[in-house]
């Protein structure tokens, strides 16, 4: 692949990490530029993503420095859109199956992750709601996992796994450290519930994803814990 590809990301963002995982799994050559979301460069919104959010990618055009993106490159934003773009860009990676039914299952899993887990987990971490909806979302996701299969869909890593893995990594952190704006002890309590037999299938899947080389490469748990400690200084009562 000769076209330049640049990822604009924020390392602590689970949405950015989705793209890091897909790029690693596809063994895709690319450049990465860390965007400070607390002090975004003035050029980012005008030259990369008008919404000012990460992740975003530029593709094609001249091979320029990431902080001076070319107007000739394509600009693509929204994490799940980028996941599909990368799967199309690297069809031999298997990030999207060739079988239409399996492709549909991958897309359904991604949609389910978005609707049933992403929002509820982030709201729990931010102290906006209890863990009830997070547990419901986890149970729904577990119901999609097929017995005897190692991945979200079938026996090959796809963008469905890349989509959910960053959230699972953060779930591990909050249940082991109790870091978040939720009332003290609620992270530990959620972790204890997940250790029960009810969620055994899901937790085995979580462990497989955490052991994946692409996640180990993209996920710096110590740095993320340190970041959580700086932003979660107050708790909900």
UniProtKB/TrEMBL annotation:
Residues 3-94 form the GST N-terminal domain. This is Glutathione transferase. It comes from Suillus luteus UH-Slu-Lm8-n1. It comes from the Eukaryota. Residues 99-232 form the GST C-terminal domain. InterPro entries: Glutathione-S-Trfase_C-like, Glutathione-S-Trfase_C_sf, Glutathione_S-Trfase, Glutathione_S-Trfase_N, GST_C, GST_Omega/HSP26, Thioredoxin-like_sf. GO terms for cellular component: cytoplasm. The lineage of its organism: Eukaryota, Fungi, Dikarya, Basidiomycota, Agaricomycotina. CDD domains: GST_N_family.
